[in-house]
Predict the 3D structure of the following.
Amino acid sequence: MKCPFCGYSDSKVVDSRPDKGGSGIRRRRECEECSKRFTTHERIEEMLPLVLKKDGRREAFDRRKIISGIKKACEKRPISIEEIERMVDRLETRLQESSEKEIATPLIGEWIMKELHDLDEVAYVRFASVYRSFRDINEFMEELQELLKK
């Protein structure tokens, strides 16, 4: 494992334990060159369906991309990175259980919005405003009014 501080390619594992969700391993490592410590996460590589984009392209599911989008929606909200990671864990489980070879981004987006709606309404509105690409303020207001009815 390459050291993020000095780039040296050898490190030793100092501590290893299951991550909070139990779906991976968290390892503390120490660089054999500069002696700085860093954390890595090891996960089982799972077979997830390809993501079918709106423009017809297909690409591999990218967990980091999903986390990045959710983190933007949750900025300055009382939502921990652990909650976001659990949300993405649930999404990945749902994708695996679907047994589909391809899954369209609108469906993934709807699943994420449902999770955000239950977690934090402000994060939900932020995500929806980008995901749904509201054409004008009226569409945005309609979404807010639906949210207020619930």
